[in-house]
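Format notes (please read before filing issues)

Several people have asked whether sequences and C-alpha coordinates are stored in separate files. They are not. Every record keeps both together, in the order shown below: the sequence lines, then the C-alpha coordinate lines. Line labels are part of the format and must not be stripped during preprocessing.
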Amino acid sequence: MPLLEIANETVFGNRLDAWFSTALFFIISAAVIIAIRHLALARLKSLSKRTSNKLDDAIVAGAERVGWPFYVFVSLAASATYVGLGGFGRRVIDLSTLAAVLFYAVRFLQFVIEGLVERYAASSQKNGKAQDPTILYFFAKLGGYLLWLVAALVLVDNAGYDITALIAGLGVAGIAIALGLQNILSDIFSSLSIYFDKPFKVGDFIILGTDMGVVKRIGIKTTRLQALQGEEIVISNRELTESRIHNFGKMSQRRVEFRFNITYETPLGKIKKVNELVKRSIHRVEGARLDRVHFKKFGEYSLDFEAVYYFPNANYNAYMDAQQTINYSLIELFSKEGIEFAYPLQRIMLSQEKEHGILISEGKRPR
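Then the structure lines:
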Protein backbone atom coordinates (compact mmCIF):
# COMPACT_ATOMS: atom_id res chain seq x y z
CA MET A 1 0.00 0.00 0.00
CA PRO A 2 1.52 3.43 -0.97
CA LEU A 3 2.56 5.69 1.90
CA LEU A 4 0.15 8.39 0.73
CA GLU A 5 -2.76 6.02 1.08
CA ILE A 6 -1.59 4.92 4.52
CA ALA A 7 -1.34 8.56 5.62
CA ASN A 8 -4.91 9.12 4.49
CA GLU A 9 -6.25 6.26 6.62
CA THR A 10 -8.61 7.43 9.39
CA VAL A 11 -8.16 6.29 12.98
CA PHE A 12 -10.55 7.54 15.72
CA GLY A 13 -11.82 10.24 13.42
CA ASN A 14 -8.40 11.59 12.34
CA ARG A 15 -5.98 10.81 9.53
CA LEU A 16 -2.75 8.97 10.32
CA ASP A 17 -0.59 11.87 9.17
CA ALA A 18 -2.39 14.07 11.75
CA TRP A 19 -1.59 11.51 14.42
CA PHE A 20 2.08 11.44 13.34
CA SER A 21 2.23 15.25 13.48
CA THR A 22 0.61 15.17 16.90
CA ALA A 23 3.17 12.64 18.13
CA LEU A 24 6.08 14.73 16.85
CA PHE A 25 4.73 17.93 18.38
CA PHE A 26 4.01 16.00 21.61
CA ILE A 27 7.67 14.99 21.95
CA ILE A 28 8.83 18.57 21.38
CA SER A 29 6.25 20.15 23.71
CA ALA A 30 6.88 17.57 26.46
CA ALA A 31 10.61 18.31 26.37
CA VAL A 32 9.92 22.05 26.52
CA ILE A 33 7.41 21.75 29.39
CA ILE A 34 9.74 19.51 31.45
CA ALA A 35 12.63 21.94 30.91
CA ILE A 36 10.42 24.86 31.96
CA ARG A 37 9.35 22.85 35.05
CA HIS A 38 12.94 22.30 36.18
CA LEU A 39 13.90 25.95 35.61
CA ALA A 40 10.77 27.24 37.38
CA LEU A 41 11.26 24.95 40.39
CA ALA A 42 14.91 25.94 40.69
CA ARG A 43 13.92 29.61 40.61
CA LEU A 44 11.12 29.15 43.15
CA LYS A 45 13.43 27.24 45.52
CA SER A 46 15.98 30.04 45.32
CA LEU A 47 13.34 32.66 46.09
CA SER A 48 11.75 30.68 48.92
CA LYS A 49 15.10 30.34 50.71
CA ARG A 50 15.37 34.13 50.90
CA THR A 51 12.06 34.59 52.69
CA SER A 52 10.76 33.53 56.09
CA ASN A 53 7.27 33.05 54.68
CA LYS A 54 6.03 29.44 54.95
CA LEU A 55 3.55 29.74 52.08
CA ASP A 56 6.15 29.75 49.32
CA ASP A 57 7.87 26.71 50.87
CA ALA A 58 4.57 24.81 50.83
CA ILE A 59 3.92 25.83 47.20
CA VAL A 60 7.36 24.64 46.08
CA ALA A 61 6.96 21.34 47.93
CA GLY A 62 3.51 20.86 46.38
CA ALA A 63 4.79 21.62 42.86
CA GLU A 64 7.53 19.02 43.26
CA ARG A 65 4.89 16.36 43.95
CA VAL A 66 3.16 16.87 40.58
CA GLY A 67 3.91 13.66 38.68
CA TRP A 68 4.84 12.96 35.06
CA PRO A 69 1.27 12.04 33.91
CA PHE A 70 0.30 15.68 34.34
CA TYR A 71 3.00 16.90 31.95
CA VAL A 72 2.33 14.05 29.51
CA PHE A 73 -1.37 14.82 29.16
CA VAL A 74 -0.82 18.59 29.04
CA SER A 75 1.72 18.09 26.25
CA LEU A 76 -0.66 15.75 24.44
CA ALA A 77 -3.54 18.23 24.69
CA ALA A 78 -1.32 21.06 23.43
CA SER A 79 -0.22 18.90 20.50
CA ALA A 80 -3.80 17.94 19.60
CA THR A 81 -4.84 21.58 19.70
CA TYR A 82 -1.91 22.68 17.53
CA VAL A 83 -2.46 19.99 14.91
CA GLY A 84 -6.24 20.36 15.03
CA LEU A 85 -7.29 16.83 15.93
CA GLY A 86 -10.99 16.15 16.23
CA GLY A 87 -13.44 13.35 16.66
CA PHE A 88 -13.44 10.65 19.29
CA GLY A 89 -9.65 10.70 19.70
CA ARG A 90 -9.64 14.40 20.58
CA ARG A 91 -12.47 13.82 23.03
CA VAL A 92 -10.49 11.11 24.83
CA ILE A 93 -7.38 13.30 24.97
CA ASP A 94 -9.32 16.28 26.35
CA LEU A 95 -11.05 14.24 29.07
CA SER A 96 -7.82 12.46 30.04
CA THR A 97 -6.00 15.79 30.25
CA LEU A 98 -8.79 17.32 32.34
CA ALA A 99 -8.73 14.32 34.69
CA ALA A 100 -4.94 14.61 35.13
CA VAL A 101 -5.14 18.38 35.71
CA LEU A 102 -7.94 18.03 38.27
CA PHE A 103 -6.20 15.15 40.03
CA TYR A 104 -2.90 16.94 40.48
CA ALA A 105 -4.55 20.30 41.20
CA VAL A 106 -6.50 18.79 44.10
CA ARG A 107 -3.41 16.94 45.37
CA PHE A 108 -1.39 20.15 45.12
CA LEU A 109 -3.98 22.18 47.08
CA GLN A 110 -4.31 19.42 49.69
CA PHE A 111 -0.56 19.28 50.18
CA VAL A 112 -0.25 23.07 50.48
CA ILE A 113 -3.11 23.31 52.99
CA GLU A 114 -1.87 20.42 55.14
CA GLY A 115 1.70 21.73 54.94
CA LEU A 116 0.61 25.15 56.17
CA VAL A 117 -1.35 23.57 59.03
CA GLU A 118 1.65 21.45 60.08
CA ARG A 119 4.00 24.41 59.92
CA TYR A 120 1.57 26.54 61.92
CA ALA A 121 1.28 23.82 64.57
CA ALA A 122 5.06 23.41 64.77
CA SER A 123 5.55 27.18 64.98
CA SER A 124 2.94 27.45 67.77
CA GLN A 125 4.66 24.76 69.84
CA LYS A 126 8.06 26.34 69.23
CA ASN A 127 6.79 29.74 70.41
CA GLY A 128 5.21 28.21 73.51
CA LYS A 129 1.61 28.62 72.31
CA ALA A 130 -0.17 25.54 73.60
CA GLN A 131 -2.78 25.46 70.85
CA ASP A 132 -4.20 22.09 69.82
CA PRO A 133 -4.13 21.86 65.98
CA THR A 134 -6.63 18.96 65.83
CA ILE A 135 -9.42 21.25 64.67
CA LEU A 136 -7.32 22.67 61.83
CA TYR A 137 -6.30 19.16 60.75
CA PHE A 138 -9.96 18.13 60.69
CA PHE A 139 -11.09 21.04 58.55
CA ALA A 140 -8.06 20.65 56.28
CA LYS A 141 -9.11 17.03 55.65
CA LEU A 142 -12.74 18.08 55.19
CA GLY A 143 -11.68 20.75 52.69
CA GLY A 144 -9.69 18.12 50.79
CA TYR A 145 -12.74 15.84 50.50
CA LEU A 146 -14.83 18.74 49.23
CA LEU A 147 -12.18 19.51 46.60
CA TRP A 148 -12.31 15.90 45.37
CA LEU A 149 -16.11 16.11 45.17
CA VAL A 150 -15.96 19.33 43.12
CA ALA A 151 -13.29 17.84 40.83
CA ALA A 152 -15.44 14.75 40.23
CA LEU A 153 -18.50 16.88 39.39
CA VAL A 154 -16.47 19.01 36.95
CA LEU A 155 -15.14 15.89 35.21
CA VAL A 156 -18.59 14.30 34.93
CA ASP A 157 -20.04 17.57 33.59
CA ASN A 158 -17.33 17.82 30.91
CA ALA A 159 -17.96 14.20 29.95
CA GLY A 160 -21.37 15.32 28.72
CA TYR A 161 -23.60 14.21 31.59
CA ASP A 162 -26.21 16.46 33.20
CA ILE A 163 -25.20 16.91 36.83
CA THR A 164 -28.11 19.18 37.78
CA ALA A 165 -30.15 16.32 39.22
CA LEU A 166 -27.03 14.94 40.97
CA ILE A 167 -26.30 18.29 42.62
CA ALA A 168 -29.94 18.63 43.68
CA GLY A 169 -29.83 15.12 45.18
CA LEU A 170 -26.63 15.92 47.04
CA GLY A 171 -28.26 19.09 48.37
CA VAL A 172 -31.30 17.20 49.69
CA ALA A 173 -29.08 14.51 51.21
CA GLY A 174 -26.91 17.19 52.79
CA ILE A 175 -29.94 18.84 54.41
CA ALA A 176 -31.15 15.50 55.76
CA ILE A 177 -27.73 14.66 57.16
CA ALA A 178 -27.40 18.13 58.70
CA LEU A 179 -30.76 17.76 60.46
CA GLY A 180 -29.84 14.32 61.76
CA LEU A 181 -26.42 15.47 62.97
CA GLN A 182 -27.54 18.88 64.21
CA ASN A 183 -26.01 18.57 67.69
CA ILE A 184 -22.77 17.08 66.39
CA LEU A 185 -22.40 19.78 63.73
CA SER A 186 -23.14 22.42 66.37
CA ASP A 187 -20.26 21.09 68.48
CA ILE A 188 -17.96 21.00 65.43
CA PHE A 189 -18.63 24.61 64.49
CA SER A 190 -18.34 25.60 68.15
CA SER A 191 -14.86 24.04 68.17
CA LEU A 192 -14.00 26.22 65.17
CA SER A 193 -15.25 29.26 67.07
CA ILE A 194 -13.14 28.29 70.10
CA TYR A 195 -10.05 27.83 67.94
CA PHE A 196 -10.21 31.21 66.22
CA ASP A 197 -11.77 33.28 69.03
CA LYS A 198 -9.44 31.67 71.64
CA PRO A 199 -11.48 32.25 74.84
CA PHE A 200 -9.04 29.73 76.36
CA LYS A 201 -6.22 27.47 75.24
CA VAL A 202 -4.61 24.23 76.32
CA GLY A 203 -3.00 24.72 79.74
CA ASP A 204 -5.41 27.43 80.97
CA PHE A 205 -7.24 26.98 84.27
CA ILE A 206 -10.94 27.70 83.73
CA ILE A 207 -14.14 27.60 85.79
CA LEU A 208 -17.44 26.73 84.11
CA GLY A 209 -20.34 26.74 86.55
CA THR A 210 -19.43 24.18 89.22
CA ASP A 211 -16.73 22.56 87.07
CA MET A 212 -13.13 23.71 87.12
CA GLY A 213 -9.81 22.41 85.88
CA VAL A 214 -6.90 22.75 83.48
CA VAL A 215 -7.69 22.50 79.76
CA LYS A 216 -5.93 19.38 78.45
CA ARG A 217 -7.38 19.03 74.96
CA ILE A 218 -9.71 20.94 72.65
CA GLY A 219 -11.28 18.37 70.34
CA ILE A 220 -13.71 18.42 67.44
CA LYS A 221 -16.76 17.69 69.57
CA THR A 222 -15.64 18.06 73.21
CA THR A 223 -13.08 19.78 75.39
CA ARG A 224 -11.39 17.90 78.22
CA LEU A 225 -10.42 19.37 81.59
CA GLN A 226 -8.17 17.91 84.28
CA ALA A 227 -9.93 18.62 87.57
CA LEU A 228 -8.05 19.50 90.75
CA GLN A 229 -8.97 16.11 92.23
CA GLY A 230 -7.41 14.40 89.21
CA GLU A 231 -10.44 13.19 87.28
CA GLU A 232 -11.15 14.18 83.67
CA ILE A 233 -14.14 16.40 82.88
CA VAL A 234 -15.57 16.17 79.34
CA ILE A 235 -17.65 19.16 78.19
CA SER A 236 -19.31 19.64 74.79
CA ASN A 237 -17.96 22.57 72.79
CA ARG A 238 -21.47 23.93 72.27
CA GLU A 239 -21.94 24.19 76.03
CA LEU A 240 -18.62 26.02 76.33
CA THR A 241 -19.53 28.64 73.73
CA GLU A 242 -22.95 29.21 75.32
CA SER A 243 -21.70 29.54 78.92
CA ARG A 244 -19.84 32.13 80.96
CA ILE A 245 -16.24 31.03 81.50
CA HIS A 246 -13.78 32.27 84.10
CA ASN A 247 -10.33 31.92 82.53
CA PHE A 248 -7.50 32.31 85.04
CA GLY A 249 -4.95 31.61 82.31
CA LYS A 250 -5.59 35.10 80.89
CA MET A 251 -4.89 36.72 84.25
CA SER A 252 -1.66 38.73 84.10
CA GLN A 253 -1.80 39.61 87.80
CA ARG A 254 -3.89 38.48 90.75
CA ARG A 255 -5.75 40.90 93.02
CA VAL A 256 -5.62 39.56 96.58
CA GLU A 257 -7.85 40.78 99.38
CA PHE A 258 -7.37 39.46 102.91
CA ARG A 259 -8.64 40.36 106.38
CA PHE A 260 -7.40 39.95 109.93
CA ASN A 261 -8.53 41.03 113.40
CA ILE A 262 -6.80 42.32 116.50
CA THR A 263 -8.09 42.53 120.05
CA TYR A 264 -9.99 45.49 121.53
CA GLU A 265 -7.35 45.74 124.28
CA THR A 266 -4.73 46.91 121.77
CA PRO A 267 -3.57 50.48 122.58
CA LEU A 268 -4.30 53.22 120.02
CA GLY A 269 -0.61 53.79 119.34
CA LYS A 270 -0.11 50.19 118.34
CA ILE A 271 -3.32 50.17 116.30
CA LYS A 272 -1.88 53.01 114.21
CA LYS A 273 1.26 50.92 113.55
CA VAL A 274 -0.70 48.06 111.98
CA ASN A 275 -0.90 49.65 108.52
CA GLU A 276 2.88 50.08 108.36
CA LEU A 277 3.50 46.52 109.55
CA VAL A 278 1.19 45.16 106.83
CA LYS A 279 3.01 47.23 104.18
CA ARG A 280 6.36 45.85 105.34
CA SER A 281 5.02 42.31 105.18
CA ILE A 282 3.67 42.71 101.64
CA HIS A 283 6.89 44.27 100.42
CA ARG A 284 8.75 41.14 101.49
CA VAL A 285 7.09 39.32 98.60
CA GLU A 286 8.96 39.87 95.35
CA GLY A 287 6.80 41.67 92.78
CA ALA A 288 3.85 42.26 95.12
CA ARG A 289 2.31 45.72 94.85
CA LEU A 290 0.33 47.16 97.75
CA ASP A 291 -3.01 48.73 96.91
CA ARG A 292 -4.41 49.69 100.33
CA VAL A 293 -4.60 48.81 104.05
CA HIS A 294 -7.47 50.06 106.26
CA PHE A 295 -8.90 49.70 109.73
CA LYS A 296 -12.27 48.68 108.34
CA LYS A 297 -14.71 48.38 111.22
CA PHE A 298 -15.44 47.52 114.82
CA GLY A 299 -16.34 43.87 114.93
CA GLU A 300 -18.30 41.93 117.52
CA TYR A 301 -15.17 40.80 119.33
CA SER A 302 -12.30 42.52 117.41
CA LEU A 303 -10.96 45.45 115.45
CA ASP A 304 -11.21 44.40 111.80
CA PHE A 305 -8.58 45.30 109.16
CA GLU A 306 -8.64 44.78 105.41
CA ALA A 307 -5.66 44.78 102.99
CA VAL A 308 -5.44 44.53 99.20
CA TYR A 309 -2.38 43.86 97.07
CA TYR A 310 -1.54 42.72 93.53
CA PHE A 311 0.60 39.69 92.81
CA PRO A 312 2.21 39.42 89.32
CA ASN A 313 1.69 35.69 88.85
CA ALA A 314 -1.47 33.81 87.85
CA ASN A 315 -0.21 30.52 89.27
CA TYR A 316 -2.28 29.54 92.29
CA ASN A 317 0.56 27.81 94.12
CA ALA A 318 2.78 30.86 93.69
CA TYR A 319 -0.01 33.06 95.07
CA MET A 320 -0.43 30.80 98.12
CA ASP A 321 3.33 30.88 98.74
CA ALA A 322 3.20 34.68 98.65
CA GLN A 323 0.25 34.83 101.05
CA GLN A 324 2.00 32.40 103.38
CA THR A 325 5.07 34.65 103.45
CA ILE A 326 2.88 37.64 104.35
CA ASN A 327 1.12 35.69 107.11
CA TYR A 328 4.43 34.56 108.64
CA SER A 329 5.69 38.15 108.52
CA LEU A 330 2.57 39.52 110.21
CA ILE A 331 2.85 36.97 113.03
CA GLU A 332 6.51 37.89 113.51
CA LEU A 333 6.03 41.69 113.44
CA PHE A 334 2.88 41.65 115.59
CA SER A 335 4.64 39.49 118.16
CA LYS A 336 7.49 42.00 118.41
CA GLU A 337 5.05 44.89 118.85
CA GLY A 338 2.89 43.05 121.35
CA ILE A 339 -0.18 43.10 119.12
CA GLU A 340 -2.50 40.14 119.53
CA PHE A 341 -4.74 38.60 116.90
CA ALA A 342 -8.35 38.32 117.96
CA TYR A 343 -10.45 35.20 117.90
CA PRO A 344 -14.09 34.59 118.87
CA LEU A 345 -14.37 35.11 122.61
CA GLN A 346 -17.31 35.40 124.94
CA ARG A 347 -16.74 37.02 128.31
CA ILE A 348 -19.46 36.80 130.99
CA MET A 349 -19.47 39.16 134.01
CA LEU A 350 -21.10 37.70 137.15
CA SER A 351 -22.28 39.62 140.18
CA GLN A 352 -23.85 38.16 143.27
CA GLU A 353 -26.71 39.77 145.19
CA LYS A 354 -28.94 38.20 147.77
CA GLU A 355 -32.52 39.25 147.50
CA HIS A 356 -34.99 37.10 149.30
CA GLY A 357 -32.43 34.28 149.29
CA ILE A 358 -32.11 34.23 145.46
CA LEU A 359 -28.68 34.34 143.66
CA ILE A 360 -28.87 36.60 140.60
CA SER A 361 -26.34 36.32 137.63
CA GLU A 362 -26.02 39.18 135.19
CA GLY A 363 -24.46 38.61 131.72
CA LYS A 364 -22.93 41.21 129.42
CA ARG A 365 -22.47 41.16 125.62
CA PRO A 366 -19.38 39.33 124.39
CA ARG A 367 -16.39 41.19 123.14
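For reference, the curators noted about this record: Residues 12 and 88 are 6 Å apart (CA to CA). Residues 358-367 have pLDDT under 50 and may be disordered.
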